[in-house]
Amino acid sequence: MSVILPGSTLGVMGGGQLGRMFVHAAQQMGYFTAVLDADVTSPAGLVSHHHVKTGYEDPQGLAELARLSAAVTTEFENVPSAALRTLAATRPVAPAGEAVAIAQDRVREKQHFQRCGVPCAPYAVIETPAQVAMVDASLFPGILKTSRLGYDGKGQARVANADELADAWAALGYAPCVLEQQLALVCELSVIVARGRDGQVVHLPPQRNLHRGGILAVTEVHEGNLPPAPASAAIAATKNIANGLGYVGVLCVEFFLLQDGSLVVNEMAPRPHNSGHYSMDACDASQFELQVRALAGLPLAQPRQHSPAIMLNLLGDLWFPQVAAGQGPAGAAAAPAVTPPWAQVLALPGAHLHLYGKQEARPGRKMGHLTLTGPDAASVRAVALQAAALLGIAPW
Ligand code: ATP
Ligand code: MG
Description:
Low-confidence stretches: none
CATH topology of the largest domain: D-amino Acid Aminotransferase, Chain A, domain 1
CATH class of the largest domain: Alpha Beta
Number of domains: 4
Largest sheet: 9 strands, antiparallel
Structural class: alpha+beta
Bound molecules: adenosine-5'-triphosphate, magnesium ion
Oligomer: single chain
Strand content: 25-35%
Mean pLDDT: 95
Number of strands: 17
Helix content: 25-40%
Distance between the termini: 47 Å
């Protein structure tokens, strides 16, 4: 395949914030963009040159996206892989539908990790009542997760024993699931790589991630954020996982660091990842620029982080301070939304505000993120804590 040069149009399946930041990166490099998303106010659709407003499986929508685009990527993990295969019949598509299909299914994903020699948490497949009855007691306490369509901790339940497992599986509608042993985590980390059609792989520095309520809250990337040995092991494992898939595009792999210093893989995302947003402000190539380069067949220069960084996720909860403080009505819907104090936050040195253009704030909804950069880890951390205090984000 020849290189797709600026001036061409790059397409993306999905119109969420990841698509929006892909569009921004593509446009910065002189590409035109096309987004397919049924939502007329989708964050990416609002800023793209072309917006195909259909569902992911609409044959006419897919034909229109293919007509407009020289190549197509995806920003949404649950895009039907059949749609990517349809597009791939006429246009280069990266990542490939098959890689996306594996990432969409926790069982296939874990099998791939094992094939690559990367250990995951002990688990059992839960698809039949017999499998529930036979589950090994060593998996308790455990986390039951739907095999498909989970995100931000949705489709998950913590279970302490076999009875709770049976109840939780019923509550998840007897959907195919995996039961994972609940591990004692020292911390969570993730690694983002980009792999080109020629097999070249580059990576961003490992991110230390703090989750709250199953949703990413804080990402810290600076010297000393992680012990060096597991950090390099995570980079090597992520490259293996990408190479094993023959992957083309940006891939993020999430890991757990355990008390004995060992590393366990959690899951992967076949696209840029929330934990990589700091790269826009702290690295000389962002994860979205890497996505553009990989899709277009351009060289992937190894990115360099030029500033220590901390990213705070801006969830819709921040718009309802009275609810967070426990003073307002129990239902957030009843409370009026209050715009967070952006001007005060932007008075802090090295504050980079990214908002995704979503009209309505709702608790748990990803509205934007704030990246703090600075000369060293200690000062970035001090400013990040100030920003968190202004925004009503609990310190960590
Ligand atoms: P997302 O796609 O938003 O990353 P998700 O819904 O796919 O999230 P997971 O990444 O599987 O969910 O789990 C969410 C969080 O729950 C993890 O980041 C971690 O904090 C915790 N968690 C998940 N599995 C385990 C486990 N086996 N042991 C301990 N904690 C876990
Ligand atoms: Mg996760």
